[in-house]
């Protein structure tokens, strides 16, 4: 019995030893084992990517026969090269969610890839990426540069406007404004030569709404309106420009052609709607009266929305029941924003016309020989023409 047990144990040990040797040889000789096989002996097999983002696996990988995946960064760059932008974006966003350390190499790869591209492909990639990363300053700047390089100036301007919309640095906003100003003049001249100004209507409406004080936008917009056959809108823009240092004289000449003044019987006499002005250093001053026949000198300012008058005059009018305080506002002045009470005048006499129930702001502004500003809440009630050669303001009721 003892001998039988010994023999049984011996046979079992031999079987176990043999099995171990066979298993070790098999693992050692398999391509994925620790043998001396080289990388070249097992070429990679290319698997096509799945572009269906709704599948359980957002993208497929390129993998070798030994099932070891290659780097995702290679897949990312390959997707960019092959214009599979959505696939590249999926990888990019996945590693962004993993954290900065995992994401940083992909960002460097994208920047490097873009540095070596000078084609429509790079614009396609930037357009798609900035749809998701719409506040990425670097990507938006690159996109604007590529648009400008391809002479797509309107698209470059639109991209820079998006960039400016979230920039909180005054220095950067100033630099962006200068570049937008330059590009806007270039695209205007470009489309004017092609007789295609109408194509710029939406762009310059947006530019003018964002920076109303930049005279070129309003002048360009007036010419675009004229090209589109909308003379009324053109006149509105030109009226505001009549006191502008660069475009004022040209605007006045265009207005004279668009809205000719009524004929005069005698050249020496001024028509009832024409008011003489005084001029100082390119600025025009008009005399008006505020219901009590007391004349006040106001500087014509088409950039001011509200008419302003000095506090002592408004207090006198208030005591005579010719004005009442109705509220307050913040006025933007050369020294910054300033609190200003709002008064409602019973009457303002300007030339032979009377403007009733006019709101004016209290502001002590004594400069260039004026006591306040005549703003667009008065001028906007008329069709007006400023003749800089004769120093007159001609008003036509709307």
Automatic annotation (TrEMBL):
CDD domains: retropepsin_like_bacteria. The chain crosses the membrane at residues 7-27. Keywords: Membrane, Transmembrane, Transmembrane helix. Pfam families: gag-asp_proteas (PF13975). InterPro entries: Aspartic_peptidase_AS, Peptidase_aspartic_dom_sf, Retropepsin-like_bacterial, TPR-like_helical_dom_sf. This is Retroviral-like aspartic protease family protein. It comes from Endozoicomonas gorgoniicola.
